Amino acid sequence: MKFSVRIPFVDLLGFELHRMEDGEAEITFAPADDHLNSFDVVHGGASMTLLDVVMAHAARSVQPEMGCVTIEMKTSFMRAAKGPLTARGKLLHRTATMAFTEGSIFDAEDKLCCHATGTFKFVPRLPVGKGTHELNTLRTD
Question: Which residues fall within 8 angstroms of residue 27, CB to CB, at 6 or more apart?
């Protein structure tokens, strides 16, 4: 399944979207050596990015024409994450403008590595490309 919007950082990390429907999303990540920390496990920043993206996609799954921006995120690390990894996100509650979510990352043995909660704001997706620069301003108020 293809991501509906191009996120260059997600492309760089190599995330793969497998599901995005009914308030849920699933993304896999096969970490390379560049994604590891000094202990040879997945860097916490890569894990947090994976959680951020899967939770945003869970939120957007109920209204895909909207964008989402992260308002806040809390992450708890339970065990070292060693790839390949699967992230699952779930929309817990939404209002007209906000989404409250949770996400978890599991290793190849389906052991929970980390968990997060996040709050996202729905924002209109605007046209991009040549000649539309003035429309790219993101309103977050």
Answer: 15, 16, 17, 18, 50, 53, 54, 57, 86, 87, 89
For residue range 5-16, what is the model confidence (pLDDT) as tens digits?
888 999 999 999
Q: Distances from the Cα of 46 to the Cαs of 1, 101, 140, in angstroms?
A: 21, 19, 25
Q: What is the dihedral of CA 112, 114, 119, 120, to 10 degrees?
A: -90
Q: Taking the model in full, what pTM does it have? A: 0.89
- Taking the C-alpha atoms of residue 55 and residue 96, their distance in angstroms, rounded to an integer, is 17
Q: Which of 102, 97, 95, 96 shows the shortest CA–CA distance to 73?
A: 102
